[in-house]
Recover the amino acids of this structure.
């Protein structure tokens, strides 16, 4: 699976970063980068789109496939600002757009982290915020990274702010 940002993918396994790739959008890497960890292969690919084009294509894809896509409803700017304050960073514009459009979603069982509150207590945010704070604490994820999806094998897809 390619990265959400279109140019960066970081895979964290346990407490170490096992793969990082940065490629300028529209350029092919000199060679395909491939890592193996405990017998599982991970492939990082370049996307031809920039991050804004990627999120817009993703939004169109989700809207065109309501039979396999479940969305939770968009986040307002106040909730996004609260998440940014709790994370001490500004979310990338592409992820902000995703949150404003969908709040969070799953496609055929693959969850893309959103942001939500339980009840009336906005001091504790769930979804991406909780996942990011947990990854910072338990996996030593750098504070500039934003987790937006689990890979199903114990790793996370993240984007660098």
């Amino acid at each position: 699976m390619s990265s959400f940002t279109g140019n960066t993918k970081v895979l964290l396994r346990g407490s170490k970063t096992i793969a990082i790739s940065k490629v300028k959008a529209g350029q092919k890497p000199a060679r395909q980068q491939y890592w193996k960890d405990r017998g599982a292969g991970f492939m990082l690919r370049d996307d031809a789109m920039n991050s804004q084009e990627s999120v817009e294509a993703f939004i169109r894809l989700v809207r065109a496939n309501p039979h396999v896509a479940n969305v939770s409803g968009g986040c307002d700017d106040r909730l996004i600002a609260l998440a940014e304050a709790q994370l001490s960073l500004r979310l990338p514009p592409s992820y902000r757009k995703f949150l404003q459009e969908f709040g969070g979603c799953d496609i055929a069982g693959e969850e893309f982290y959103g942001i939500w509150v339980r009840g009336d207590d906005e001091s504790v945010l769930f979804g991406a915020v909780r996942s990011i704070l947990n990854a910072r604490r338990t996996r030593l994820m750098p504070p500039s990274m934003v987790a937006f999806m689990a890979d199903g094998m114990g790793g996370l897809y993240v984007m660098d702010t």
